[in-house]
Design a protein that fits this description.
The protein is mainly alpha-helical. It has six helices and two strands, in the order ααααββαα. The chain has a two-stranded antiparallel ribbon with strand order 1-2. Helix 2 crosses helix 5.
Amino acid sequence: MVGVATRPAGMTGRQVGRIAAVRRFNRFYTRCIGALDDGLLQSEFSLTEVRVLFELAHGQPTTAGTLGQRLGLDAGYLSRILQRFRRNGLLLREPSPHDRREYHLRLTSLGRTTFAPLDRAASREVAQLLRPLVEGEQRDLLSAMQTIMRILDGGRPD
């Protein structure tokens, strides 16, 4: 039967129900934030690409390895994104002063100029999401988000 999940061997009904609830939340939230749209924030960039731009815009120069680890991205996939950014003049790649085998990555001025409206658009979208909620609902939502992060991230800082 199409569309009907079967219970994996060894799983209890409670486990299956919890898995279904997490997946339902994930589908709901990806729809809420527009993660499934062709271009995030009505741009030419995917969610992953915007996240890479965010990391490069808000951090110190970093290596591709460190960036990939931080974001949990496949090295080949990240490499293709970074190559595209370099081709489009958004990214500089400079040899590390400490290890010539490594390269530090940072956004060019064009990269920063390209990212800035995306950052503002993301803030506007979140403001729009929060706007219909009363103060108590906003506090509850933020508290629930912090709880999810704390539990799933094991207390590691962002």
